[in-house]
Amino acid sequence: MSLESLVEEIRQHAEAELHATLDRQKAEEAKIIAERDRRIAEIRATGQRATEAEVARERAQRVAAAKLQARKQLYEAREARLEDGLRETRTLLADFTSSPAYPAVVKRMVDAATASLGRQIRISGRSEDAGLLAKVAGKTFDATPRPILGGIVAETTDQSRRLNLSFDELLRLREDEVRELLA
Questions:
Q1: What is the pTM (predicted TM-score) of this model?
Q2: How many angstroms separate the CA atoms of 128 and 146, rounded?
């Protein structure tokens, strides 16, 4: 073999190795790029899922907060309407005390108190009703005025038992029923 052919063979061998190294490098580079692209796609997909989940959670929280606020406003409006109804009921009861039917109602209340508590009782009511109570209750009338809408308050002389038939108390005892009627 001649020196030229040996040099040529070494050069071809070097070129072949260079091409093989370049091919391996290109293959490795392509593999790295593919891995990078796969990881980027995976990170983007994970980020997208996390963002969608966060958006859905945020939306659900806002919807729940809005529903709660709506229920609260509905409750407040209903309560305001009921309070207006109760105020109107109190006004009607106060107006009833000046009606011609009121003395008969007071008489029935005095009779009920006497039947329930006995004859040894003290009956009191509004200062405006003093004349009516003195006439209906007689000796059992107590002139001490009560701050009530109307009706009577009866108690035994020893103050061991009491029967409150005032419009205020009757309304308070039946407030739930009145609320149901007004709702």
A1: 0.58
A2: 10
